[in-house]
Amino acid sequence: MSTSRTRATRVALSAAAGVASVVLLAGCTGSPAPSSSSGDADDFEGVELTSWSSIDFDPYQTLQKEYFEKCAADLGITIDAQTLSGDYTTSLLQAASSKSLPDIALVNTDTQLPTLAAQGVLSDLDTLGLTTDGLAEPVAALGEYEDTLYGLPTQVEDYSVFYNKAYFEEAGITELPTTFDELIAAAKATTTADHYGIALPGIAGDGSTSSYFLPFLLSAGGDPADLTSDGAVAAVDLYKTLVDDGSLSKEFVNWGWDGIDQWKSGKAAITVSGPWNLVDTSLDFEYGTFSVPAATSADESSVGLLGYAYTVPVQGDEKREKAAAALIECRASEENQVDTAVQGGYVPALTSAQDAFVAEVPAAEAFVTPVANAFNPATLGTEWSALQAKYVDALQNATVNGVSAEEALSKADQG
Fold this sequence. Notes:
This is Extracellular solute-binding protein. The chain is α/β, with parallel strands linked by helices. The chain has two domains: about 5-155 and about 305-380, 3-Layer(aba) Sandwich (D-Maltodextrin-Binding Protein, domain 2); about 160-305 and about 380-415, D-Maltodextrin-Binding Protein, domain 2 (3-Layer(aba) Sandwich). It has 16 helices and twelve strands. The strands form three sheets. The chain has a six-stranded mixed sheet. The protein has a four-stranded mixed sheet with strand order 8-9-7-10. Helix 2 (about 60-75) crosses helix 11 (about 320-330).
């Protein structure tokens, strides 16, 4: 599966979930055995379960089916692991309404999990013996809604900086940027007649621009809920400076998720993207990664965190629910999480699996390091949708019309 399709599929999941939630809410080998609180393997002999996922690209789709089937065989369970195409959020909501949700549902943590949890259709995983042991606090929080654990995260996504090593070498850059000023200098130094220094999306409407912008805002100490915070000003000003310097093409306002193609084709030295590019075998140059720079040396790099978590919908059948929990526990083993990360381009949820991932894929360190300090956009609720649009308006106004970052944000806030 191509990287571009992987990216588009993941984006579609989140975008579809956002629309629906606004409307409604105005293998086991070598893996730890399920805990006794989830029931012994013999207890589940003959239990038949169904699981849903909407991640329909390989290798993820095939891997998930293999994990579940291996675990199910060990537990005496029969599992029908289904991958749903189309509007997954609508499928979940319709099933919730008709009380026909599957025994296990993989959901994104920013919109789908809180939407379903608010309807009371998800089981409290604590009561089924599942815990967040081994997860960093920001990761564990992804599976919670109103302080109750409804989903067990197994993989997360965040953003990092990718750079073309040859372009950095040609520019004489030996130290990777850690601050906005250093990033600006690196982008300027790698800008030539043949390629730009950096490529970032700036289009409105598809969620790409705000997804890439959020880490810069957070790494400037900004509060995403406060459009006029100093951090927001610093982040918008970063984009404005890059455009004014000629390091970022003015055409960036026409780029969306496909903006990374500028970097992949050698037309830019630097870009920001997700862990799915760690498994991209189409690149014909050597690349490196580094964490999103902080505004100053006094600030700390931070990112927005998106997760995918397994949930157990309420079935009114304790044995089936405990069987589902035991199956999830096995599926979420460190071995399986590392395998998914290495082959599928995700960051494992387990801290131990993250360390193992970095040992196998050193470039993943730039994605793993910020997790402990990550921000969960789901805490903003439905407000985040409106805020994203305003941030994009401010970015475009500042870079295209030449107004100051402060003025652009103030106008967007009032709009």
